[in-house]
């Protein structure tokens, strides 16, 4: 029986891939796309520049892969209680925005919208759309259960809940732990059946 052909070189280290993407996200958030240094990414990831180029053909490809890695998989599982499910989704949003470089990365993708449109497209698809769809599912379930009004403006409610976080951040005020519950409680009366 012939032996299977072995690929030359060492097998790829998935932990290194994760460190590279984390270092790239940190670089993007700290320095922006233009200031992103592949030398610093390699150093911070414990790799070399040739290692980066074996994985990513360009700085743009690495930046896009880093944003792509932010896929939301942390959204809480639904409980069936619409109010509490909305609070849980917003608590997760608060956690993500307040992690190191969470909010500054949003600024980076907005600044790069014209020069590197793939960044904001991926950010919208992987982060923004995922969370908005989760909120929309909870609200639609609330309408179906009769908890929320049939003619409630669910799109406006979604924008108000998510937008409260950006407004709070830009004001410079701290985020209290109860902020997710306060936001849902402020919007809830306009939606309630």
Quick one: CATH class of the largest domain? Mainly Alpha
| Number of individual domains | 2
- Strand tally: 0
**Shape-level CATH architecture of the largest domain:** Orthogonal Bundle
Structural class category: mainly alpha
User: What is the first-to-last residue Cα distance?
Assistant: 71 Å
Order of helices and strands: HHHHHHHHH
- β content, as a range? under 5%
Uncertain runs = none
Main beta-sheet annotation: none
Question: Which fold name is given in CATH as the topology of the largest domain?
Answer: Tetracycline Repressor, domain 2
Alpha-carbon Rg, integer: 21 Å
CATH homologous superfamily (4th level) name of the largest domain: Tetracycline Repressor, domain 2
Shape estimate: elongated
Q: Roughly what percent helix?
A: 55-70%
The mean pLDDT is 87
Give the oligomeric state of the chains in this entry, treating copies of one chain as homo and distinct chains as hetero: single chain
Tally of individual helices? 9
Structural write-up:
With 193 residues, the protein is an all-alpha fold. Helices cover 69% and strands 0% of the residues. The longest helix is centred in the last third of the chain and has 29 residues, at 117-145.
């Amino acid at each position: 029986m012939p032996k299977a052909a072995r690929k030359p070189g060492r097998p790829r280290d998935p932990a290194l891939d994760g460190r590279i993407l984390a270092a790239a996200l940190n670089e993007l958030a700290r320095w922006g796309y233009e200031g992103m240094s592949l030398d610093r990414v390699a150093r911070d990831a414990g790799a070399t520049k040739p290692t980066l180029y074996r994985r990513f053909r360009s700085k743009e490809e690495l930046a896009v892969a880093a944003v792509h890695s932010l896929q939301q998989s942390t959204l809480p599982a639904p409980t069936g209680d619409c109010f509490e499910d909305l609070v849980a989704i917003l608590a997760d949003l608060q956690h993500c925005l307040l992690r190191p470089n969470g909010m500054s990365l949003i600024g980076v993708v907005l600044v790069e919208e014209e020069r590197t449109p793939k960044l904001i497209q991926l950010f919208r698809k992987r982060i923004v759309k995922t969370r908005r769809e989760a909120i929309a599912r909870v609200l639609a379930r609330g309408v179906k259960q009769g908890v929320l009004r049939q003619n409630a403006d669910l799109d406006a409610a979604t924008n108000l809940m998510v937008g409260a976080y950006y407004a709070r951040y830009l004001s410079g005020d701290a985020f209290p732990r109860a902020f997710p519950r306060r936001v849902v409680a402020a919007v809830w009366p306009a939606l309630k059946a």
